Fold Oligosaccharide flippase family protein.
Amino acid sequence: MSAPQEHRDSASLGKKALRGGTFLAVATVIERLARLGRNMLLARIIVPDQFGLMALTMSVLAVLGAITEVGVSHAVVQNKRGDTPEFLNVAWWFGVVRGVVVGILAILLAGPVARLYDEPELGKLLLVAPVVILFTGLTSPKVFALQRKFQFKATLWTNQGAALLGTMLTIVLGFLLQNVWALMWGAVFEFFCRFVLSFILCPIRIRFRLDRVSVRDLLKFTRGMAGLSILTMLVIQADTAVLGMVVSAHQLGLYAFAIALAGFPLGVFTSVIEPLIVPVLSQAQDDFEALRRRVLALSRLVWLFGLPLMATLSIVAEPLLRLLYGPPFGEAAHAFALYCAFVMVYMNSIVSFFVYVAIGKPELQRRFTLVRALLVVLLLYPLSVLLGIEGAALALLIAMVGSMAVQLFNLRRVIGLGVVSFLATIRAGAGAAACVSVPALLIVTLTHLPDWAKVLTCAAFGGACWALLLLRERRVLASLRQGSLRSPSEGRVGTPHSDLR
C-alpha cells in the first residue's frame, strides 16, 4: 500500500473512531445517569438490605457466568472472519449453550448457596437470575461484528436503549413491590430487550450446521480466554461474596450503592472504550511499534482526565453519598474513596488487556489476572474481617496495583513497552489532580456549608479543571479527528512519537 493511501485509510479510521466514540460516550452517559437517578429514587423506598441481597444474587451469577465465559464477543471483533455468516452462526450457538449451562448450574446450586448465606430468598432469586445470561447468549453476535467497522448504531440501541427501558420498568416496580424483586425483574426485562433489539437491528440466519473452520478459530481463541474470566471475577465480585459472610445485609447494601457510584466512570469507560479501542488496536495487530504508541497515548489520556475526577469524588465522598442516597449512606464514604482509586487503576489495566485481545493472544493476560486473583484471595477475607467494607475496597486496590506492576513488565516483554515510558504518562494527570484536591479539601474540611453546596462547589472546581484540560489538549483531539492521537508534548508519554494513527 502506498504512503498516501495508508495515510488516507488511517485518517478515515481515526474519524470513524472519533465519531463512533462520541455517540457511544453520549449515549452511555445518558444511560448511566438514568441508572443513578433510579438508584437515588429507589434508595428512599427500598431498604438497603434488599440491595445487599440483590448484590449477593448478581455476585453468584457472575461466578457462574465467569466459569462459562468463552470470550465470544471479543472473538467476533478480533477475528478477520468475524463478520461472516458462518462465524456468526457458530458464535451464537456458543452463547446459547453457555446460557443453558449457567441455568442448570444455578438451579443445582440455589439451595446450597441460600443456606450458606442463611438467606432463603436468595435461593428463589437464583432460580430467576440465570435468565439474564440466557438472554445474553441469545443476543445477535452481529452487533459485535459491526463494532469492528466502527458502526455503533446497533450497540447503542441494544445496550443503552435496553438499559433505559429496564431502568424505567425497575422504577415502576420499585414503587409497586418495594423489595428486591423489583430489581430482579427489571434486570431480566433489560436483557430481554437487548436480545430482541439485537435481532431487529442485526438479524442473522441461525443454522444447525456449524462451519468447521469457524469452530476451530473460535475454539482456538476461547482456549486463550480460558480461566481469565473467573480470575477477573475474583476482583469484581469476590468482595460482595465475602462481605455477605462478615457484615450485615444493611452494610452490604450501603457498600453496593457506594461502589456502584464509584464505578460510574468505569461503566462509561468500558462501554465506550471496549467497542472502540479493540478494533482500533486490531488494525495494528502486526505492528508492535504502532501498538506501543497507541497504548502510551491512551494511557496518558486515561490518567490525565481520570485522576482529577477520582480525586474530586474521593474528597467529596461523604457529602455526596448523603446527598444522593440519604444520611445512612455517608457511612460508606471511606470505602467509596478507596474504590475510586481501584477504578482508576482498573481503567488503565483495561487498555493493556485490549493489546492482547487485538493480537489474538488473550492468554498473555493470564499472568496479570492470576497475580491479581491471588492477591485478592490472600487479602480480601482478613481485611474485610478487620476493617469491614473499607477492608474489602482496600484489598481490591492493593491487588490491582500489585498486578498492574506485573502487567508493565509483561508488556515490556511482549511488545517492548518501556516501564519508565508508561510511568511518565501519569505525570500530567497527577499534577491536575493535585490542583483540584487542594481547594476541594479546604471546602470539605474547613467550611460548614450544607452537603449540596460542598458538592456543587467541588464539582465546579473539577469542571473547571476538565475545561482547562480540554482546551490544553485541543491539538490532541484535532489530531484524532485527522486519524492520529498525538501528545502536544512528545516527552509526556516517554517516546519520540506517541500517537494513534
